[in-house]
Write a structure and sequence with these properties.
Elements lengths: L5 E5 L4 H5 L2 H10 L4 E6 L15 E4 L9 H12 L5 E4 L4 H9 L4 E5 L9 E3 L10 H11 L15 H13 L7 E6 L11 H12 L4 E7 L8 H4 L5 E4 L4 H8 L4 E5 L2 H8 L4 E5 L8 H4 L6 E5 L17 H4 L3 H11 L1
Parallel strand pairs: 1-2, 1-4, 2-3, 4-5, 5-6, 7-8, 7-10, 8-9, 10-11, 11-12
Helix pairs in contact: 2-5, 3-4, 6-9, 7-13
């Protein structure tokens, strides 16, 4: 294809999805150093992209708020049209993402053959539900389709210096120094099929607390604080549930010796910062499994148990999430000890 002058990348789903899309930005910049590259995302994922040196512009599309109705979406598309992009990469197929790219008048619109894909000019067969490769690879496949080199697969996570200073001050007030072995626990996830039982997290934390020189903090999003309640009541555990923004969460994870979490977006923050991370997976559906969603860092590990389900019903599980129940706190503790 001819060298595009202005490129728009669109991804309006969740935190981890956007994080795993950052190699696309980096490879675009390497291949087109003089092109103008913009990214459209939701408000709550913008902290993952602000400060990214490979981006020229961040365009916020609030599909659950300000841009919820079709008229507002159309106005946003017309706003994009004024920017005169000549290439759009729609990394995750949604009706609205395809509508935006089409009504923005972008000449070449590349994405996946799902949802309103007839609005695209180029589409790849959507086989993500088969989970044959990692989500990061699926993202890079759009570049490969365009014969754009996609050799650099590293995630980029910006750490804002002023935010890091703020978080360091929060930790100092809690008696945590830079030399301390800080473990952060994130017991939350968007779906019950991803959540390791709170009782198991509590048992794990009690084991870890018995070790010398270990400090533990528990975090969650503001709407999932309930999943950290039991852990935060353990003596000495620092309760930061619902207290941190995404950029502050990034800064906190940047300080950890180890991050332990359910399968969730912050896992990919830790992996992107090359921090040791243990992720706990349920679900065996191919498109939801660790093969597609595991953290990608050099120090990334995960637990996932096959409990013999012929068909995984994910959040509609009729077996009490046996796959999650099968993961024992003692085995997570053994790995955690090695990593710290």
């Amino acid at each position: 294809m001819d060298k595009p002058k202005k490129i728009l990348v669109i991804r309006t789903d969740r935190l981890g999805d956007v994080i795993l899309s950052t190699p696309v930005i980096k490879n675009l910049r390497k291949n087109y150093p003089d092109s103008y590259i913009a990214f459209t995302c939701r408000p709550y994922t913008k902290d993952i992209l602000e400060g990214n040196p490979y981006l020229d512009e961040l365009l916020i599309y609030d599909k659950y708020g300000y841009h919820k109705n079709f008229l507002a979406t159309l106005k946003f598309a017309l706003y994009l049209r004024k920017k005169k992009f000549d290439l759009a990469l729609v990394l995750h197929p949604t009706n609205r993402a395809h509508i935006l790219a089409f009504f923005a008048g972008i000449a070449k619109r590349v994405g996946w053959n799902k949802k309103l894909s007839f609005l695209l000019t180029d589409k790849l067969a959507h086989t993500k539900d088969q989970g044959k490769k990692h989500e990061r690879e699926y993202n890079l496949d759009l570049l490969r389709y365009l014969d754009i080199s996609a050799e650099d697969k590293e995630i980029y996570i910006p750490v804002q210096e002023n935010v890091q200073q703020k978080v360091d001050q929060i930790l100092a007030k809690e008696g945590i120094e830079s030399k301390d072995k800080l473990i952060v626990i994130h017991p939350c996830a968007s779906c019950p099929s991803k959540r390791w039982p709170q009782s198991k997290f509590i048992e794990l934390v009690k084991m870890l607390k018995a070790e010398e020189d270990i400090k533990i903090a528990v975090i969650s999003s503001a709407d999932q604080k309930e999943f950290g309640k039991g852990i935060s009541k353990i003596e000495g555990v620092i309760d930061l549930c619902g207290a941190l923004s995404i950029s502050e969460t990034i800064a906190l994870i940047n300080r950890v010796r180890l991050f332990i979490s359910c399968d969730s977006g912050p896992v990919h923050i830790a992996a992107g910062l090359n921090k040791p991370v243990i992720s706990i997976f349920g679900r065996s559906q191919a498109g939801l499994s660790p093969k597609r969603w595991a953290p990608t860092g050099k120090n990334s590990y995960f637990f996932h148990k096959d409990v013999g389900c012929k068909i995984c019903l994910a959040h509609n599980c009729q077996k009490g999430f046996k796959c999650l129940q099968a993961i024992k706190p003692a085995e997570v503790y053994t790995l955690a000890k090695k990593l710290i």
